[in-house]
Design goal:
The chain is mainly α. The protein folds into two domains: 53 residues, no CATH class; 36 residues. It has five helices and two strands; from the N terminus they run H-H-E-E-H-H-H. The protein has a two-stranded antiparallel sheet. It starts with a helix and ends in a 7-residue tail after the last helix.
């Protein structure tokens, strides 16, 4: 297995895998067909498996996050960023004092719509 493949498998970086190879003294072989001698294959023996099992709890699996675009949120954030400090303080005070329900009532938006 190459360091890149092991990195994908464990969630760690290729650089971290290469540090482990040196530090732990894992057996490696030159990767056939790659010149320069830097490409290596890691021999996955019991020592490597034991080490990987001991660190698995540390590595969080990669997550896929989907961000839905909300035009209103974008508009609000853009508007707030253009406000003066005094305007931001007033809006903050209004929200703290009346909450969302109070703000919706001021806008004549019925509750639950």
């Amino acid at each position: 297995m190459t360091p890149e493949e092991l990195a994908l498998e464990t969630g760690y970086s290729r650089q971290t895998i290469n540090k482990w190879i040196k530090r732990e003294g894992w057996a490696t072989l030159p990767k056939p067909g790659v010149q320069g001698g830097k490409a290596r294959l890691i021999h996955i023996d019991e020592e490597v498996k034991t080490f990987l099992d001991s660190i698995r709890h540390v590595s969080e699996p990669k997550g896929n996050y989907i961000v839905e675009k909300d035009p209103l949120a974008t508009l609000l954030l853009s508007s707030i960023s253009q406000m003066t400090r005094h305007e931001k303080e007033q809006l903050s005070g209004l929200l703290l004092r009346e909450g969302i329900r109070g703000m919706l009532q001021r806008l004549d938006i019925p509750d639950g719509e």
